[in-house]
Amino acid sequence: MTHVYDDPAAFKDDVLVGFAAAYPTYVQRVPGSSGFVRAGGPLEGKVSLVLGGGSGHYPSYSGTVGTGFADGAVLGDLFASPSAEQVYRICKAAHGGAGVVMGFGNYAGDRLNFKVAADRLEAEGIDVRIVWVTDDIASASLDEQEKRRGIAGTFTVYKVAGAAAEAGLDLDGVERVMAKANAATYSFGVAFDGCTMPGADEPLFHVEPGQMDFGLGIHGEPGITSDAWMPAPALAARLVETVLAERPESADGRAAVLVNGLGATKYEELFVLFASIAPLLEQAGVTLVQPEVGELVTSLDMAGCSLSVTWLDDELEGYWTAPADTPAYRRGAATTSERFTRHLEVTEETLETPVAESSEDSRAAAEVARRAVAVLSATVEEHKDELGRLDAIAGDGDHGIGMSRGAKAATEAADASGEAGGGVQTVLAAASAAFGDKAGGTSGILWGLLLDGVGQQLGDVDRVTDEGVAHAVQSSATRLQEFSKASLGDKTMLDALFPFVDALVGAVDGGTPLAQAWRDAAVAATEAADATAALVPKIGRARPLAERSVGTPDPGAVSLALIATAIGGVLADAPDPS
Amino acid sequence: MTHVYDDPAAFKDDVLVGFAAAYPTYVQRVPGSSGFVRAGGPLEGKVSLVLGGGSGHYPSYSGTVGTGFADGAVLGDLFASPSAEQVYRICKAAHGGAGVVMGFGNYAGDRLNFKVAADRLEAEGIDVRIVWVTDDIASASLDEQEKRRGIAGTFTVYKVAGAAAEAGLDLDGVERVMAKANAATYSFGVAFDGCTMPGADEPLFHVEPGQMDFGLGIHGEPGITSDAWMPAPALAARLVETVLAERPESADGRAAVLVNGLGATKYEELFVLFASIAPLLEQAGVTLVQPEVGELVTSLDMAGCSLSVTWLDDELEGYWTAPADTPAYRRGAATTSERFTRHLEVTEETLETPVAESSEDSRAAAEVARRAVAVLSATVEEHKDELGRLDAIAGDGDHGIGMSRGAKAATEAADASGEAGGGVQTVLAAASAAFGDKAGGTSGILWGLLLDGVGQQLGDVDRVTDEGVAHAVQSSATRLQEFSKASLGDKTMLDALFPFVDALVGAVDGGTPLAQAWRDAAVAATEAADATAALVPKIGRARPLAERSVGTPDPGAVSLALIATAIGGVLADAPDPS
Asked: Which residues form the DhaL domain (chains A, B) (predicted)?
């Protein structure tokens, strides 16, 4: 859908006005015409590259006017060729005295209008060359390469031609390089959904839901095959195979590679695709030279993407990697600050945390801690589905799964740390980091903090006492609350944690042995967790679903009570620390 | 919709793999972690800027790792904070010995995880500063600015901080500059539609069709008002007013301005919006410093956009405009070729075509030509709706409207040229250029070519004869066919044009006076146009609708016959040229 527009009939003109306002340091409007030349005016003695075609393909054409790329851009209405008059005007304004190379994708309307404009310019004594781009494999056979349409590979061809002109090649030279780049460029695309014109309610064309249309043109021109949806690796394989099938004999393997999104396909999707494309190309002996993944030639909000490969020789590689500075495409001249010259190597060692010395006492406590973490994990596993159901009432239902992932990782990390001789602080720190890392979400980081806080209080050296454990849990719970910014009554795990802590500390300070005190405190935690059913959460996800959760206990409080109860069993079995 | 994915649970990891494969000259993976540092490793002695947050916002975070911007990027799952463990790892790998500044948008999960990581890094002796970005006006009042969320303004704040670090500021300095940039940054956004997670069938949230949700968060967090759709100028006014309402007293008017698209909103829409935003800002005394219009902070394929303004002082302006070289954002170091130094000015005169000398005879013929063009226009106007209906059967229905626009413009241009003393060639060339320019589409350029071709044969000096006119039309028709690449029987205007030309030339060559011959030829053209109803067009638009047009005459052939008939009347009234 198009949401931002005023008069649909004036859409293209409004785009031109907005573009000129945004990038005055790069471009200037040409009086009475539908396009731009470079802000400073044409460079005297330089061959001018003028690109053009229908609107709706930004950054195509206007987005690439600037140093090292185009000298002018001329835009027609949405998906319609600019008129010959407009092409004529932009070329005339862009002309620096050394001739004009016109570049556009191979569409009938563009060929007609650019040719008429070229004849008029020639009649006025301006030397003009025309190179239309024919990269789309799907639109004609290799025998009829000159009949192919121009799609995303236009970008590479234009970039190379712009760099050649900037380097000072003459008109013959720029034309030759551009034609060589075009002959070396092969694209194949896939469409997932059509695009919608401003003011229209329906897309210009449709792709059947659940289908992928291979070779569908960027204005909905027919494709070559329609297939059922396939996962990214299969899609990548199809694109790579099709493009590599036309690899010229002369290609030595170096290639400029583009994965181009057509508008509504997410950047993240393009990278997922590239994760499969890159190794396939490398396996086929292709050396990727400064690849680009992004939106370089769009088609309004069409969903789809394409792979373009331009086979490079030394000359084309030089122009492909040359600097450019335009509104939408800038490259090169990386100016690393001169202040800083030495890079530090990043290795596994960079990430190592020094292991602290530990006492025998602390290592004994670490044994108990490891069993507690293991029991924690077993408890979460047993109640995973129930916790998920509770969380699904007003959340995303992943509490059980997240806790399960975190607790398993914490158990492994605690065991590895304990076997490496870690004291109780080190073992709990390892468990904490793994819990927070693998559980994801707020529960993960909070449980990680809780374990880590207890460990920090107990240390790696001191003998662990009943009072020490109780106060360590208390101190950790207090830190947890500071981090989480939640208050009691907000329907979080804190609503079970603090009744537990108060009961535990009160009993241990009153002389009750830890195991007994913990068991009693776990009962208090369970009652408190049940009581959270009556509460309304203060902080909801996205569109708050807070009120839906009334009548259901908080899953975080419930898991805390279940875990506290289970750990009580571990402590009952543990050797008396005193 | 998400179309490209493999295992939805591994989506984020696949994105990381693809990104690393695409930009190895910019970034390297950090072993066992969910993010990147610069390819060369950290720069010794430089403050490191580490950015992070949930995935799904590319180019946020990873797309801006490089010279002059970020030193590291850490990514969580889609829309979920990275874990503290991941933040810790990336910061440790990115650390160059001069401390780390962490930057992220103000979300609870990010604040928690980055703080835990910071504590751990501090415990290991790495100095860390945290600056979270709070630019979203909609999410809290100005009194509670520190509670606001981070949205697209994060981009400017990160850019400025990255440039400050690259310039060699120490940890205090980078923290100070980043906090100043954040305090100076104000964003306000509007959502049109929600985004869809990989593997999901439904968007994560909805915006009611026909509505605009102002201030809706980039993960669907509640907005402040919902309004009916409004045109771009009204939308721009709303955004500008809201942002300018919080202009600080200290602001001198210079501002970095971003118009950011969230994913599915087209670039063209952003420019249409900017066309209204720029003048409103300028009227309010704002000086736009290197504005950017594009996708800088996305939210998967969410439809929506925002305006961000960062009020600049000399220091912030310097860092905002400083060079940067990253995968998705590059700026500065425009290397104009040293070969070319002088820019040519572009003025109205640049576009002027020299006016040819004309004879009195030719000016007399030009009078007839002007009347013919005027009658052409009146005829098209009379039959505009009918032509549109014929075209709508298998085309886009704009033949009547396009011809009407072109013919009106041609009439005006012919009159202006005639009044300026143009001969028949000059007058028809003016009519031709205007016709092709304003009519748009293929009909426009073909009619333009036809008029121009006749003029070229007649010239601006020679006396015009009956034979001259007939042969000029014939020659022009032949050139038209070469340009259009259509054949007879393809169901185009040629199917009426050639029977007309054949009849005209045959009769005139046989001695029939031009006016009589033209009238007879027009009858032939009308019969031929009617006969096109039986034909199937060879070239269709988009998904060919060719067969639907059988039974309907070609609108181009019909308009040609109508125009030929009407011009016959002009010739009958014209003075005998012989």
From this structure: 367-569
